[in-house]
Design brief:
The chain is an alpha+beta fold. It is built from 6 helices and 11 strands. The chain has a 3-stranded antiparallel beta sheet with strand order 1-3-2. A 3-stranded antiparallel beta sheet has the order 4-7-11.
């Protein structure tokens, strides 16, 4: 992803997941924003963005961070919000094992307390250890945790699958965590 596209994608993540008010944008209760209002708000904030550039960012994002509504009039972030939104996820059965990447400096706290969502709505889990390691490396020296998600589900914990393939849950108690 070219630098300008990557920078714009990060800006959209910030606005659509955390601070829409920074550019005078309003999201509905499900996190959707009008594409026209988003483009206008970006322009007012000094960030010119065209429909074509927005289409390119949504369609080429390796992490599939954003989705358009079926009529393509609205856009939202798929997960990772720190603001209150209802993404309408339905609980579903996860694979037996999922993975979480984090920085080694957080490991002691996770083992003592739990893996929690922090300021986000959910804990994000990956299907594979390679993806988890990439996520963990963003925060420092990475460590990959194997999550016994099948057992958690059997014990009554809920899991959700986001539109971009990220597994979500509210928290992971230490008993279900194994360091890779």
């Amino acid at each position: 992803m070219p630098d300008q596209t990557k920078e714009t994608s990060k800006f959209l993540s910030f606005v659509l997941r955390h601070r829409p008010e920074e550019i005078g944008l309003r999201l509905d209760e499900a996190g959707w924003a009008s594409v026209e209002e988003l483009l206008d708000a970006c322009k007012r904030a000094g960030r010119i963005l065209t429909h074509e550039e927005l289409d390119h960012i949504v369609s080429t994002s390796d992490k599939k961070r954003f989705s358009f509504s079926e009529d393509r009039l609205y856009i939202r972030a798929n997960q990772g919000h720190s603001i209150q939104v209802d993404l309408g996820y339905t609980p579903c059965e996860p694979p037996a094992v999922l993975y979480h990447g984090t920085a080694r400096r957080f490991l002691e706290s996770i083992q003592r307390e739990d893996l929690n969502r922090g300021k986000r709505h959910h804990v994000h889990l990956s299907r594979d250890a390679i993806t988890a390691a990439k996520v963990g490396s963003r925060h420092g020296k990475p460590v990959v945790l194997r999550i016994m998600s099948g057992q958690m589900h059997a014990d009554g914990y809920l899991f959700y699958l986001s539109e971009n393939g990220v597994w979500l849950t509210d928290r992971v108690p230490p008993a279900y965590i194994v360091e890779e």
